[in-house]
Amino acid sequence: MEDLGKFIESLSSILWPAIFIWVLYYFREAFKTVLESAKGRKFTLKIAGNELTMEEVTEQQRTILADLQDKVAKLEELYESSTPTAFSLGEVKRQAFGKILWVDDKPKNNSFLVSHLSDFGLEVHIAKSTAEAKELLGQNQYYKIISDMGRPESDTAGIDLLKYVRASNVETPYFIFCGGWAARNMKNEFVAAGGNGITSSGTTLLKMLEIDG
């Protein structure tokens, strides 16, 4: 038990620097834009094609960091209740997989995640409504589909679109990135409709997409 305690203590001491390095590396282009904007005394930034205010940039960065901190806390709990095993931080493989369709009536909220996907060579098509999504689906083949849950047309627009996709015999992996309540309470309906993953965590979404394998 003493050895386990020392291992956990050592893990904690290296984990936070590793997470900090991860954030700097994967979002380096977005952070670079922030710094350049600050130097030029600009008050808006263009990230992943979206014009963001400094307040919106700060909020998205805060959300990303809070999400990572939550994941680290859960990892520490896991190691406290299990036997430690050796691990290493491998280099991420960057591959171009193709196109992703992201459906959200407020795409600005996903700017940093879209920028991250673009860094992997993925072409992200944005649709702000189910109608726009259907039009794009008729024109393109997609590697993955991401949707929010509620949009002006329906509180279950994400699941409604999923049903349309599956009824069209399209088996493209389909994910919903939404609020915590919907992720918890609408999961069964989503899975029953043929969905592949639903989450309120940006970090978990990227893991589900399996773009870094």
UniProtKB/TrEMBL annotation:
GO terms for biological process: phosphorelay signal transduction system. Keywords: Membrane, Phosphoprotein, Transmembrane, Transmembrane helix. The keyword Membrane applies. Residues 99-213 form the Response regulatory domain. It comes from the Bacteria. The chain crosses the membrane at residues 7-27. The keyword Oxidoreductase does not apply. The modification 4-aspartylphosphate is found at residue 148. This is Response regulator receiver domain-containing protein. It comes from Halopseudomonas sabulinigri. The lineage of its organism: Bacteria, Pseudomonadati, Pseudomonadota, Gammaproteobacteria, Pseudomonadales.
